[in-house]
Amino acid sequence: MSLTGLAEGNLGDLLRLDGRVAIVTGAGRRIGREIARVLASQGARVAIGEIDAAVGDRAADEIEAEGGIAFAHPTDVGRSEQVASLVDATVARFGRLDILINNAHWEKVGSVVELDEADWDRSFDVLLKALYLGCKYAIPHMEAAGGGAIVNISSVHARHVSDRYVTYQTAKAAVVHFTRQVAWDFGPARIRVNCICPGAIPSAEEHDRTMADEVRRAEATMLKALKRAGHPRDIARAVLYLVSDLSDWVTGQTLTVDGGEFMTFPSTGARRMADYLADHPDRRGSV
Ligand SMILES: NC(=O)c1ccc[n+]([C@@H]2O[C@H](COP(=O)([O-])OP(=O)(O)OC[C@H]3O[C@@H](n4cnc5c(N)ncnc54)[C@H](O)[C@@H]3O)[C@@H](O)[C@H]2O)c1
User: Fold this and answer.
1) Closest residue (by CA) to atom 31 of ligand 1?
2) Which pLDDT score, from 0 to 100, does residue 163 have?
3) Does residue 1 fall inside a structural domain?
4) How many domains does the chain have?
5) Could you tell which of 23, 25, 31 is best to mutate to test the pocket of ligand 1, judged by most ligand atoms within 8 Å of the CB?
6) What is the pLDDT of residue 1?
7) Does a structural domain hold residue 157?
8) Which of 77, 91, 117, 263 has the greatest number of CB atoms lying within 10 Å of its CB?
9) pLDDT, tens digit, for every residue of 181-236?
């Protein structure tokens, strides 16, 4: 074996997804849309499971205009029959299923006292039950294909609490452990299951506006080790690694992709914020 790695050939080839079929939920906007684009750009044929039919179609058209292959299937990921229909339509169209990205997002903010039971149930249907449904219907097809890769999108909120955000944070924490359990159960079938915890990810347009504005850039990156705002492609590229053969021996893991924000002590962040506000008193109440 060569220590230089030259004997490995072109490792970039392992990032290609030619011949594979992927489902991305909630892919009409922002992170999911970019995941679908990046997977398609590497040769995957992509099904977009999106509740908003218009943005789902737009995302699929965009991929096709860029030379990829995609279609949108109107789907409420919280409904069993609709997730089954998404999987069936994908396999009917493309003949197989190799990749599932559980990304769709809806939640109701509130404390346990404020939240209606229906909002609690709906939040958990989209943030957690949808993952169970996606895996339940997708995995038999992956087993038939000899393996597969699933990525669940959690959040840095899985490990932290903030004000009145009980549905999101509880569900996202469960996503991390759900990932490990499914990875354990289906590892013998060569189905890898991993999880990504994104930090704050604005839309691509918001990212560009933030980075072009000195004050917004300083404030958006104040607590990040890397002095750049997040971009949907940061998450999409991490997803690509986790579904590709480059991560062939990685399963059950959670990768935080946040520009290095959520690793310091709260007191360090608070001190940095206080220093900034001492220099910019006009920004008090805005950051
Ligand atoms: N953007 C961030 O700052 C951020 C940070 C951490 C984690 N995340 C996670 O990343 C994922 C994507 O986030 P985003 O910011 O791109 O979300 P978004 O709200 O911009 O887009 C979510 C998409 O999901 C769709 N959707 C909503 N309910 C659905 C349902 N029942 N069935 C199917 N589709 C549905 C929406 O129509 C929308 O197109 C989510 O899981 C979110 O929790 C986002």
Assistant:
1) 76
2) 96
3) no
4) 1
5) 31
6) 45
7) yes
8) 77
9) 999 999 999 999 999 999 999 999 999 999 999 999 999 999 999 999 999 999 99
